[in-house]
Amino acid sequence: TEEMVAQAERLRGRFQGDPAAEYACAQINAEDAERWFGEGKEPVIKEEARLVATIEQIDRAVGIVPRGAFVKTPLGSVRENRNFEGLSLTEAKKLSSYFHFTEPVNVKNKTLLEKADLDPSTDFLDSLEHDIPPGSWTVQLEKGGTVVVLRSLLWLGLTFYHVPMTKQYGYIYFGTGEKNLDLPFML
Amino acid sequence: MDQSYALGLEPYQTQEPDSACQRYAGGQDPYQGSAGGHGPCQPHEPGYGLCRPGYSPYDDQIPDPKSRMLAIQNAKAYLLKSSTTSGLNLYDHLANMLTKILDEQPTNAVDIIENISKDVKWAQFQKKMDTLRDQHEILPTFEAAEKRKSLFLKADGGDEELEEETGETPLPNVMETAFYFEQAGIGLSKDESFHIFLALKKLISVQPIQTCRFWGKILGLEMNYIIAEVQYREGEEDAEVEEEEGTEEGGKGMGEVEDKDEEKEEDEPPKSTYKPPPVIPKEENGTGANKYVYFVCNEPGKPWVKLPPLTPAQIVCARKIKKFFTGRLDAPVVSFPPFPGNEANYLRAQIARISAGTHISPIGFYQFAEEEGDEEEEAEGGRDTYEENPDFQPLSVAEMVDSLSAWVHHGQSILRQGRCVWLNPFQKSEEEEEEEEEEEEEEEKAEKPDELQQETGPPLLTPVSEDEGIQNIPAWTAQPSTNLIPQYAVAVLQSNRWPGAYAFASGKKFGNIYFGWGHKYSPENHTPALPPPAQAEYPSGPEITETRDPTLAEELAFQAAREEASAAAEEEEEDVAEDDEEEEDD
């Protein structure tokens, strides 16, 4: 839920590993505290809630798919594209051929000129090119150029892989579950 | 003639020879005389040659020349007719095919005649002379494979090396270490581990190396780094050390020349009393933070590059900044405070910090070498060296996991100064170091612009349980690799201060490794240092004081007062002298 996500964003520090562990939120406004617990007790968040919220945040922020893997039918629903044959090698090296798999924010803001080039069935999601700050993705070819690997620098540990010219792609997260807020300093 | 036949021969275009035969009424048809009336044989049918009347090989009689000529022309016209779908005609195609067969003279031509026919047809669509040659596209995978190929080639003199390898090789068993880490869920793929193994082998054959270890992998923006930790054999480093000293002396010479130039200026702005803090000399190669030499490469198969030795200033600066590695060693590190060096130096500094903070081993594996006269050295900075304990008794995995005191650091920690062994930079020379050290410790309390206290760090081989955690988080997390099969489990430690550093122990074997981005963990956000306040240009004192310029009103008032004073002081000469002094002060 949105509340959980908002609460979890304020928490810092590592996960404990115990789903029932509780955190005390120290930075909540006085108003919020009164709203939730009229008794004056400090609100606590269970770790499992924090975990769920973090997963949701990660998916929303950096869950990506290659262009063409999903198509939008004229009726508006989004389906997996069974004819997706994979990106070509040159396309796979470009950031613009990967999209965020969430509600698009920027698609409607593009100029008409750009929109003319787009194919409405496949280009209905936000591309990675306009992520803030620019450069928050690294693109590398591994294994002799057969696998392209994208790593997110905003959520350190999110790795996306794709084998060009095949249908294989996917992303996975290994890490501490913390957003990298120092990113602008690090680039 | 052709046109009429074109019209009449249209039925032949269809795939039904029988019906075509029926409809073909007029015109002389040399083929209609075929036996059985089943229609003229098509060229692809086996009995073709035999169906044609008058052309049988057994017929010696020459029929009527006129009709024969006409028949030939009809046949040729038919053959020359182009098909509507492909634009070819049978005559040309047959001619080409026969030419090709006669040119190439393949064996069993009759069996492969369909393929020949197909090839000839396909050849129609290819341009024979093309100014643009189609460049054979080299797949990037092919290029990458070529690079790695050199790894797989055996070096020359492989037989000779086999004899030496039975002894101790500096080559670490990367696959074994990878296996143990894989039990814990950490590591690279088997392919990559093996490539790294081969790359290390190549490194050893090139450089005179005593011990070598795969240190880990640091990820970067464009490319990653694979890092090997190496110790040279004794006596091999002299050449490089001399080169570096030469450049340093050259630098000092330049500095002296510049100072002389400044003194020649006539108008001297007040000399600043700013003396840059003394440069702390780096540690000798082979000791302290520079104990190991590190080689990096971007991918196995690429040549190994040696990282330069470390200076304390670089460590101090690296602690304050947090930057991603780009993957190119010559990239500048743009940061504040400005990092002295490029990415190679920053990488070296981070490697040193990680090694100092996270290289641990089971207790008892290393012990101090027994030397006489150790007591004096202990006061300075602790023991430097350790050696393997031949009587090492490994603890059980459960014990390794339960208590963190079963692990000790064998990487020397780096002091705040940036070195492992504290050095007072105000020493006059190195020769006097031993004599003066005791005296200087007493003199530290005397007045000096910068007082430095001797920094001590935790001595070598301290147990890991004494590591400070960050806030509530302990410095290390210990786990057995599997809870289900305790007899074969491996004890695994993860560092929380440097996420990505792992250590394992199983029986007599242990190892450390690092996979990550190369940054320390901090729960708070990174705040870069603010620039220091602007310094005063010159010290304020009685001689030179900076004051505000007087305003117009003040100047006029002063002038009026002066005139009065000068009028009053015409008789007194002493006052005039004082006024002159006041004027000069303005």
Topology:
The complex is a heterodimer of chains A (187) and B (586).
Chain A: H1 2-10, E1 22-24, H2 30-36, E2 44-46, H3 47-62, E3 64-66, E4 70-72, E5 78-80, H4 89-92, E6 98-100, H5 112-117, E7 137-142, E8 147-152, E9 158-162, E10 169-173, H6 183-186
Helix pairs in contact in A: 1-3
Chain B: H1 2-8, H2 17-23, H3 48-51, H4 65-80, H5 90-104, H6 113-124, H7 140-152, H8 158-165, H9 174-183, H10 190-206, E1 209-218, E2 225-232, H11 238-263, E3 293-297, E4 305-306, H12 312-320, H13 343-358, E5 360-362, E6 366-368, H14 374-381, E7 386-388, H15 397-402, E8 407-409, H16 433-443, E9 476-480, E10 491-495, E11 501-506, E12 509-516, H17 552-568, H18 573-585
Parallel strand pairs in B: 1-12
Antiparallel strand pairs in B: 1-2, 2-3, 3-4, 5-8, 6-7, 9-10, 10-11, 11-12
Description:
Chain A: Keywords: Cell projection, Cilium, Cilium biogenesis/degradation, Cytoplasm, Cytoskeleton, Flagellum. The complex is a heterodimer of chains A (187) and B (586). Chain A has helices at 2-10, 30-36, 47-62, 89-92, 112-117, 183-186; strands at residues 22-24, 44-46, 64-66, 70-72, 78-80, 98-100, 137-142, 147-152, 158-162, 169-173. By secondary structure, chain A is an alpha+beta fold. The longest helix of chain A is centred in the N-terminal third of the chain and has 16 residues, at 47-62. In chain A, the strands form 4 sheets. Chain A has a 4-stranded antiparallel sheet, with no helix packed on it. A two-stranded antiparallel sheet of chain A has the order 1-2. Helix content of chain A is 25%, strand content 21%. Chain A folds into 2 domains: 2-60, no CATH class; 62-185, no CATH class. The two termini of chain A are 33 Å apart. Mean pLDDT of chain A is 73; it is low at 26-42. The model of chain B is unreliable at 1-37, 155-167, 238-265, 371-383 and 428-451 (pLDDT under 50). Helices cover 37% and strands 10% of the residues of chain B. In chain B, strands 4-3-2-1-12-11-10-9 form an 8-stranded mixed sheet, with helices on both faces. The longest helix of chain B is centred in the middle third of the chain and has 26 residues, at 238-263.
